[in-house]
Amino acid sequence: MSGRVFECRRGPIPGARIRATAEADLSRLDVAEPTTFQAVADQDGGYNLPLPRGLYVILALYDGYAPHRESVAVREERGQDFCLEPAARISGRVVTAAGGDPVPGAEVHADLPEPDGLSLIEAAITDETGSFRFTTLPAGSYLVSARKGSMAGTIGKPTDVVSTGQVENVEVAISPGLTIKGTVKSVRGTPIAGARLNVWPRRRGANGPRTSLGVLSDPSGRYTIEGILADDYTAMVWADGHVPEVSKLSVTGNTAHDFVLSEGLTIIGRVIEYESGQPLPGVTVQVRSRTPLPPRVTTDATGGFELHGVPADPLPAVSVDSEQQTHISTMAPPAPVRDGRMDLGTIKLLKVDPNKP
After folding, report:
1. Angle at 208 between CA 217 and CA 147, to 5 degrees
2. Which CATH superfamily is domain 88-176 in?
3. Where do you find CATH 2.60.40.1120 in the chain?
4. Which of 26, 146, 250, 336 is the most buried (most CB within 10 A)?
5. pTM tops 0.70, yes or no
6. 336-345 in b/e burial notation, b at 16+ Cβ within 10 A?
7. Which DSSP helix (H) or strand (E) runs through 286?
């Protein structure tokens, strides 16, 4: 992908950064470091960003400008220009509602309402005086909220800020928030320790998982999430060897909610090269399912793989993809299930012929 980065209605922006992140990674809470590619614009604002085929979220960034965000499908060579507007700024401080004391180390979010939901634009951490500052915001009407530990709060109404404008002295008062608590168990009633639970406001839509509150269940399967504001939430829980579960929660007070996880299937197999019969390590194998966090692994040195916690109904297909695009991707259909295991056997991938389109 190549193109130019320039200030809207003006000239090029040398040094602007173009960052492409694999769209599939952004919605997966089990991916700590999403796959990201980056390029820097030259003196004429031009950039060239080599990318494997796929779906990406592209960010064009430069200090003093609002980032430009766009979802792009890369299937062939393509041109893409980016127009950046000068940024708006919001600054203020976080204090305790009880005494007005500054709160250092609080996490502050600036959220911009959009037609498809409330999207996180930027996050900041308050300094030792409780102060925060957002310097790269698009113009808009922002809801500013803050949280630290069990304390949470938000401003009473959205703050309007125009391009190149600045709003100062925004004060966010935080007080003890609400809690969501409960247990995580298997369908057999056994407590599940170490299950990961995350909640985020439903209005954040696809951006929610990356801005969520998360905890682990204790040895008895119990969990507590503190510092919650009254809102409608999406809650997700997953644990090794179990099928993830998603629930919708309307939180108006302290809320109790229990999760029951099914164990799912184990899928095994081996990936080799069709022409040579050699094993293919590092190939991505992923369950194609509409369930959250469909299992995904890479093949080991022998080309082998194991997928755990796979939903059994309906039986899923499995995609096999070469990340380096040296081999042609394929889909492996379901195989018979015996004792909770599905053996896909040997999957053969054809080499890509560089002389063919």
Report:
1. 70
2. Carboxypeptidase-like, regulatory domain (2.60.40.1120)
3. 2-84, 88-176, 178-261
4. 146
5. yes
6. eeeeeebebe
7. strand 284-288
